[in-house]
Amino acid sequence: MLTLLTTFLLGKTVNTIPQFYNALLDHWQLLIIFKITSNALLLLLTIIYDNILPALRSIVTTAIWVLYSMMSVRVKRTFVN
């Protein structure tokens, strides 16, 4: 595919070939930068995930117990004013 496009551009004009290769190199550079930054962010995300998981677990547990305490008939009968 790249060979066909290069041949087409060579047959068309000589001026478009440097523009094509510059655009191709820019695309590759952006792709490499994106891969490096995404890998770094994923590494940070796993570190943050390991630290946040216990806090998230306790928040969910607290939410379940608060909802149970608010809606349970047994709790309401026990803690009547």
Would you give an account of this structure?
The chain has 81 residues and is mainly α. 90% of the residues lie in helices and 0% in strands. It has helices at 2-12, 16-71, 73-78. The longest helix is centred in the middle third of the chain and has 56 residues, at 16-71. The N and C termini lie far apart (80 Å). The model has no long low-confidence stretch (mean pLDDT 79). The chain crosses the membrane at residues 40-68.
Helix/strand structural class: mainly alpha
- Helix proportion range: over 70%
Q: Assembly state here?
A: single chain
How many DSSP E strands? 0
Low-confidence stretches are none
With helices defined by DSSP (H or I, 4 residues minimum), what is the helix count? 3
Q: How much is the average pLDDT?
A: 79
Shape: rod-shaped
The radius of gyration computed from the alpha-carbon positions, rounded to a whole number of angstroms, is 30 Å
Helix and strand pattern: HHH
The largest sheet is: none
N-to-C span: 80 Å
Question: Could you tell me the strand content as a percent range?
Answer: under 5%
Transmembrane segments: 40-68
Keywords: Membrane, Transmembrane, Transmembrane helix
Q: Mind sketching the topology for me?
A:
Blueprint: H1 2-12, H2 16-71, H3 73-78
